[in-house]
């Protein structure tokens, strides 16, 4: 049998890089979609050192056509998609009195809408047992007014993941949003590696007890 494959949308340093390495250590090949070549190249070297087959595509995932093409290319190149991980969000320090409608829509396109592009392109490469995971945030429930669009993104992302799970569960494909209830840090319970471990665990839940939202509180 071929090795399982994870495709990470919004790949780069931080949580997404830790997710890539965690799955690579578990025997997965890895596809990366990100906006900058240099961090994708550096991460690819790390993953290859762990024994993973790696493909990466530079794409602006807010461009529906480009996002779909990138995910489809990786699914075809790597032969399958067993896990689709969605990581991106936009942090824009604007409160509701200064945030404009175009800015809000741009941020939601990145942090929520791009998942639709990625999912619909990935679906032909997924079979029963495949999983969709997403990096959620406590901002969905406790938004900070100073970055108002972030809470909207994370609430929308969780809602969309719940709908994806309901739509695909009869096909044996499940989706989960991991709600990170803390602030990312270089040490302690909320390091990128610890969050990545929580995402890995959520993707490997027993389907009989599946939860489409899993909180991570450290």
From TrEMBL:
The top EC class, named as a word, is: oxidoreductase
What keywords sit in the KW lines?
Answer: Oxidoreductase
From the UniProt annotation, give the residues forming the signal peptide. none
Does Oxidoreductase show up as a keyword for this record?
yes
Q: Which Pfam families match?
A: adh_short (PF00106)
- Read off the InterPro entries from this record: NAD(P)-bd_dom_sf, SDR_fam
What EC numbers are recorded for this enzyme?
Answer: 1.-.-.-
The domain of life for this entry's organism is Bacteria
Q: Which GO terms describe its molecular function?
A: oxidoreductase activity
Q: Which family does it belong to?
A: Belongs to the short-chain dehydrogenases/reductases (SDR) family.
Q: Which PANTHER family match?
A: 5-KETO-D-GLUCONATE 5-REDUCTASE (PTHR43669), ALCOHOL DEHYDROGENASE, PUTATIVE (AFU_ORTHOLOGUE AFUA_3G03445)-RELATED (PTHR43669:SF3)
Full protein name: SDR family oxidoreductase
């Amino acid at each position: 049998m071929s090795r399982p494959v994870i495709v990470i949308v919004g790949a780069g340093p931080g949580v997404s890089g830790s997710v890539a390495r965690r799955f690579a250590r578990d025997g997965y090949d890895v596809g990366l979609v990100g906006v900058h070549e240099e961090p994708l190249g550096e991460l690819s070297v790390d993953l290859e050192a762990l024994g993973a087959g790696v493909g990466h595509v530079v794409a602006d995932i807010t461009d529906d056509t480009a996002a779909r093409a990138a995910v489809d290319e990786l699914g075809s190149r790597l032969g399958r998609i067993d896990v689709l991980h969605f990581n991106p969000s936009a942090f824009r320090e604007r409160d509701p009195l200064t945030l404009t409608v175009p800015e809000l829509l741009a941020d939601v396109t990145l942090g929520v809408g791009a998942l639709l592009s990625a999912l619909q392109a990935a679906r032909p490469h997924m079979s029963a047992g495949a999983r969709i995971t997403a990096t959620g945030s406590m901002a969905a429930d406790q938004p900070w007014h100073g970055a108002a669009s972030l809470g909207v993104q994370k609430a929308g992302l969780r809602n969309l993941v719940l709908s994806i799970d309901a739509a695909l569960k009869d096909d044996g494909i499940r989706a989960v949003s991991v709600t990170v209830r803390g602030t990312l840090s270089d040490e302690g319970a909320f390091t990128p590696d610890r969050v990545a471990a929580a995402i890995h665990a959520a993707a490997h839940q027993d389907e009989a007890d599946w939860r489409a939202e899993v909180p991570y509180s450290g």
